[in-house]
Design goal:
20% strand; Met_Sox_Rdtase_MsrA_sf; alpha+beta; two-stranded antiparallel sheet; Peptide methionine sulfoxide reductase MsrA; oxidoreductase; EC 1.8.4.11; Met_Sox_Rdtase_MsrA_dom; 158 residues
């Protein structure tokens, strides 16, 4: 999720982390235990004069399998569930309408299961998780192959 958002004009910051759980300042190991209720997420700070929340949501749809409620590609489990978070009623409406439009498009054979939820406390992930695609380009490319294959099939991208 990080690279495509970081490369978008108007993005000020993309930070990997955890949200929605019960533990204060969780670690990756805490979240991976499936005992904290956290979801792995990215916090995106953006300049609304350059890029809109609507554009961020539109990009999100092209990066994920919105029909898979149990993870994303090789990342499996409740901590990888697909969610779009919002900060206010306008963002909630944008995300909800966008989800409905995608479902109505007929692009997917199964229901769109991405949750739309209010944002909660965001805990930044450990430093080794930040900028993973830059620090580990070979491993990132290998682990992303399933996602790239899916995107090519669904969206006609390479």
């Amino acid at each position: 999720m990080v690279q495509p958002f970081e490369e978008m004009p108007g993005i000020l910051s993309v930070l990997s982390g955890y949200t929605g759980g019960t533990t204060q300042n969780p670690t990756y190991e805490d979240v991976l235990s499936h005992q904290t209720g956290h979801t792995e997420a990215v916090e995106i700070i953006f300049d609304n004069d350059v890029v809109s929340y609507r554009e961020l949501v539109a990009l999100y749809w092209t990066l994920t399998d919105p029909t898979d409620a149990f993870g994303q590609f090789q990342d499996r489990g409740d901590n990888y569930r697909p969610v779009i978070f919002y900060d206010n009623a306008e963002q909630a409406q944008v995300a909800t309408e966008s989800k409905a439009q995608l479902q109505a498009s007929g692009r997917f054979d199964f229901p769109i299961v991405v949750a739309i939820e209010p944002s909660q406390t965001f805990w930044p992930a450990e430093s080794y998780h930040q900028g993973f695609y830059k620090k580990n380009p070979t491993r990132y490319a290998q682990s992303s192959q399933m996602r790239h294959d899916f995107l090519a099939k669904q969206w006609g991208e390479k």
